[in-house]
Fold:
Amino acid sequence: MAASSDTLADLLGGRRGAVDATVPPLAFLFGWLLTDHHIGWGAGAAVAAASALCAYRLITGAKITAALGGLAAIIAAALVVLYTGRAEDFFLLRLLVNIASGLAWAVSILIRWPLLGVVVGAILGQRARWRRDPDLLRAYGRASWVWVFGQYGVRTLVFGALWLSGNALALGIAQVALSWPLVGVVVAASAVILRRSLPDDHPGLRHPRIPA
Structure:
């Protein structure tokens, strides 16, 4: 798993995802603060930053769906904050996305299709063969809970508390702190749990043991 940790992080966003997740919110905060809390300027700055990132991604060969998806999310956040007039609502969609993601990961474990296994299986080109290995299925399930609680749960609690308190500045800081640094910790922790959950004689993630 150690060899694939970086690949897993890249597939789930990686440093590029962290930049896309933090630059537009920071642009919103700077635009909002520098214009004496003018929501329109903050929203405009965020959309401008997201548009620049989108253009850069397209020029450098990123998938058009990923590039435009990030821009669409910022435009949606800008429309929400322009409608409500509350700066903290710029982060409301991020809060909702993390709640939905946590629920999706939890459900995937309960129905025995843990998303960590789906992701790593795709990286290793195994499709769903890993599900036929009881040890791997159990290990992926245990490790996936790290993502439920360690990433999406933490983000939901922090973003939710700050959003309820109306602290837009703290939300922006939390957005940075809970992007790439948190993903790195979660990837490492889930890799450790995954490895320790497998029997000592198991051949490893790349070699599912499929019962005859």
